Amino acid sequence: MSAKHPKVRNIRETLLSDNWYTLKKYTYELQRSDGNWQEQSRESYDRGNGAVILLYNRSKNTIVLIRQFRLPLYISGYNQFLIEAAARLLDNASPEERIIAEAEEETGFKVQKIEKVFEAYMSPGSVTEKLYFYIAEYHDQDRLNLGGGLADEGEDIEVLEWEFPRALQAIKNGEIVDGKTIMLIQHVALNNILKNT
Question: How far apart are CA 56 and CA 18, in angstroms?
């Protein structure tokens, strides 16, 4: 089966905000499957692409996560600090370069060998961002500092080292609700990289 490509015409854009990143409104015509053209309007938020990494230790059967405040979740009613894997926007760096630096900055671990596992669009209905997903094995001697992020960027990050079964249970009981983190933990589980029990 060949890929199907949309037919779009008469695209017009209106800048709504460029305060933090770029929010635009697009009006366009999309050809429907019956051949008719329909005018539609959508908003799209462009914040650039990002990368995320899950650190794991085979001998200890552990992973490293972080916990931090996320305003959008708080204002939508989630009144806890978010548990997630280390992640960062690329900001014109390669995904590999950016995620190695971010792993050290946020977790304190210097990883040497990273493995790309997949790419995914996380919210394609409104956000242009594509995430590059990585995993990397860490060892105790790889810890250079306590991590915690950069205070001048508003980061106040708690580093968590959890046994893998605890992380799986945290997904089931709603303690871990971050999509990118769930995807990486499930990847580790499905590929038998760590023990589930």
Answer: 38
- Ranges of the chain whose pLDDT falls below 70: 1-2
Measured CA to CA, the distance from residue 134 to residue 70 in angstroms comes to 22
Whole-angstrom distance, CA of residue 67 vs CA of residue 127: 23
pLDDT of residue 3: 77
Q: Is the pTM of this model over 0.85?
A: yes
Q: Are strands 158-163 and 82-84 parallel, antiparallel or unpaired?
A: unpaired
Around Cβ 9, how many Cβ atoms within 10 Å? 9
DSSP codes joined into one string, 60-113: TTEEEEEEE--HHHHHTT--SPEEE-EEEE-TTS-HHHHHHHHHHHHH-B----
Whole-number Å distance between alpha carbons of 28 and 38 = 8
Number of H helices, E strands in the chain: 4, 10
Distance, CA of 40 to CA of 28 (rounded, Å): 6
Residue 35's Cβ-side half-sphere holds a number of Cα atoms within 13 Å equal to 0
Q: Say how many Å lie between the first and final Cα of the chain, rounded.
A: 41
Nearest to 43 by CA among 61, 62, 28: 28
The alpha carbon dihedral of 15, 16, 17, 23 has a sign of negative
Instruction: At 160, give phi and psi (nearest 5°).
Output: -120, 130
What does the block give as tokens for 111? 């990883």
In this prediction, residue 2 carries a pLDDT of 61
